[in-house]
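Project outcomes to date are best conveyed with an example. Our students and postdoctoral researchers have been running inverse folding experiments weekly, and each run begins with a structure described purely in tokens. The record below, which covers 599 residues, was selected by the lab manager from last quarter's runs and is presented without edits.
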């Protein structure tokens, strides 16, 4: 029997339903594809999915570890996801939401408190909306882009004191401060009547509670390198403003631990209304300042309690502590006091009203990584070598003269001189053969993650840059040599995030990256190279560069991970005069933007 060609209206209703369902499904898939690809809803749904995956890496350590393993193996083909938009200024170890639950005694809650890697999402910190490549040095000292840190609190509260002002697209910095509304220049001119700020006698300074670092920025013209610090506080971003201006700074709090510097590092310590209770807790904070101040160095305190209304007792106590430590009173000028620290072992009396005692000879004066504050006075004789002002060379001779604290190390003289030659040769190669424009106005804030004697920084001394020399806390503590050379730096453990805001360094240099995460004397890692590179990305500015020296095997791994953190990279031969198997990886961070619906 032949098939009948029935009209459409006479077809089986079941055939109709099946055909309709298939057709509708096909067109539905096509429509969904176009929605996802070309509409904001698609962006939003994709972003939501990415953020769900991202949060899962924080809440599920196993999921996070799987992602780390894939990135390490080069099998994670997509870049690591971006963090939520509200994380633009995230500092993992100075997170107010996390740290506000901690004790407020001695400001413990405002010190570093780092989450474990498995407690943090593995993601890349985004730039703020409207971010621009920073204003180059030296213009940046006087103005920065408002869009790069659109926080008006300081300008609104402190504008009348000359801290900073909003002017169109920029924040501008007239150079003022709470204790010097007429400008840091006038204030420094007043100090120079009492302190030898010219001529190279003073080189390293510590500015405590620095505001937007106009004091440190102005001192640069005197050849004095001031490292400014302040906590993450109600002003939100004072250290971030300082670094955007190109002034050396980092986030820290004088609380329950020593600051991360060796003993007798700073030629000048300055506090302008820093509100540190120097005489509280049996003068513990004054004692810490004394540990950091070089014998023969100067201590300047402006503001409360110096001749301040209703603070007679605090002012009397401050003078009493200085007398107990045999500090020479140079001047009291209005609300500013200037003391000079004695050279030689302290003349600390056995009996004094604060119960101060000298530390044991066995106390390590330069141990300062998570090291509890001591209630004893550090003996100058506890550190070997000559490092008092007057016994060390003036700047700039001090940069190249072998410091006494290097000579007392095993083979110190030979090691220092070989290191200086090596880095002069390497930096010349970076410039001439790798075409790294280290003298460019685009490069101002530089970090050396594994600095040893500061040879890399010394080779850049004639360039318009400053270098944060980082000494890994588990390696030989050579940071005192760096300060004796007139350079600056901090101790740090690279298995933890660094105490700075995102996007604060233009150029990051590291020699031996894998050694930063290895257990000393072992091939086992203490933490992940992926986490370290995500942290490097956090602190690197868009269009900033990274230079890594290590073995070919390590650099092959790093190159795979560079793709995951959205860097473009290339591997080069080392300079021909150097021995060993090292190669050099140079990477550039791109300026990427978050999709508009990723909040």
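After processing, the design step wrote out the following sequence:
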């Amino acid at each position: 029997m032949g098939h009948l060609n029935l009209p459409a209206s006479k077809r089986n209703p079941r055939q109709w339903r099946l055909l309709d369902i298939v057709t509708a499904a096909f067109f539905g898939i096509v429509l969904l594809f176009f929605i996802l690809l070309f509409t904001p809803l698609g962006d939003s749904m994709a972003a939501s999915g990415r953020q769900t995956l991202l949060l899962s890496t924080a809440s599920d350590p196993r999921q996070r570890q799987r992602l780390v393993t894939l990135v390490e193996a080069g099998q994670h083909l997509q870049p690591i996801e971006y963090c939520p938009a509200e994380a633009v200024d995230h500092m993992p170890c100075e997170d107010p939401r996390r740290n506000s639950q901690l004790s407020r005694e001695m400001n413990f809650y405002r010190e570093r408190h780092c989450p474990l890697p498995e407690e943090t999402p593995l993601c890349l910190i985004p730039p703020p909306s409207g971010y621009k490549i920073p204003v180059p040095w030296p213009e940046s000292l006087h103005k920065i882009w408002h869009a790069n840190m659109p926080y008006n609190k300081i300008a609104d509260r402190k504008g009348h004191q000359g801290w900073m002002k909003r002017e169109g697209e920029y924040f501008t910095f007239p150079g003022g401060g709470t204790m010097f509304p007429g400008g840091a220049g006038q204030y420094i001119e007043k100090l120079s009547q009492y302190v030898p700020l010219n001529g190279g006698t003073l080189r390293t300074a510590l500015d405590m509670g620095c505001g937007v670092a106009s004091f440190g920025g102005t001192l640069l013209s005197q050849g004095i390198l001031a490292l400014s610090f302040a906590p993450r506080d109600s002003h939100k971003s004072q250290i971030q403003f300082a670094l955007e201006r190109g002034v050396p700074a980092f986030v820290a709090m004088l609380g329950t631990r020593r600051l991360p510097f060796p003993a007798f590092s700073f030629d000048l310590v300055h506090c302008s209304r820093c509100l540190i209770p120097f005489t509280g807790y049996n003068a513990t904070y004054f004692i810490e300042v004394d540990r950091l101040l070089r014998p023969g160095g100067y201590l300047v305190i402006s503001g409360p309690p110096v001749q301040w209304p209703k603070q007679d007792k605090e002012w009397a106590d401050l003078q009493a502590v200085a007398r107990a430590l045999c500090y020479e009173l140079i001047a009291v000028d209005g609300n500013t006091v200037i003391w000079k620290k004695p050279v030689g072992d302290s003349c600390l009396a056995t009996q004094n009203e604060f119960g101060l005692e000298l530390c044991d000879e066995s106390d390590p004066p330069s141990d300062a990584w998570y090291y509890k504050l001591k209630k004893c006075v550090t003996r100058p004789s506890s550190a070997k070598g000559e490092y008092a002002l007057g016994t060390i060379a003036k700047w700039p001779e001090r940069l190249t003269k072998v410091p006494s604290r290097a000579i007392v190390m095993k083979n110190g003289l030979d090691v220092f001189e070989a290191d200086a030659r090596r880095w002069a040769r390497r930096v010349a190669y970076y410039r001439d053969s790798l075409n790294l424009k280290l003298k460019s106005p685009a490069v101002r804030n530089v970090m050396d993650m594994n600095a040893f004697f500061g040879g890399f920084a010394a080779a850049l001394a004639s360039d318009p840059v400053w270098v944060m020399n980082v000494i890994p806390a588990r390696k030989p503590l050579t940071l005192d040599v760096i300060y004796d050379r007139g350079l600056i730096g901090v101790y740090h453990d690279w298995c933890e995030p660094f105490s700075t805001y995102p996007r604060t360094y233009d150029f990051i240099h590291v020699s031996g990256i894998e050694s930063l995460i290895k257990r000393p004397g072992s091939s086992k890692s203490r933490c992940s190279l992926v986490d370290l590179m995500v942290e490097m990305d956090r602190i690197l500015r868009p269009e900033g560069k990274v230079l890594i020296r290590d073995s070919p095997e390590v650099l092959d791994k790093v190159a795979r991970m560079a793709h995951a953190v959205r860097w473009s990279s290339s591997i080069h031969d080392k300079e021909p005069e150097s021995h060993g198997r090292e190669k050099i990886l140079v990477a550039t961070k791109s300026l990427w933007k978050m999709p508009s619906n990723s909040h």
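The first strand starts at residue 143 and ends at 145. Residues 263 and 380 are 9 Å apart (CA to CA). The training component of this project remains on track.
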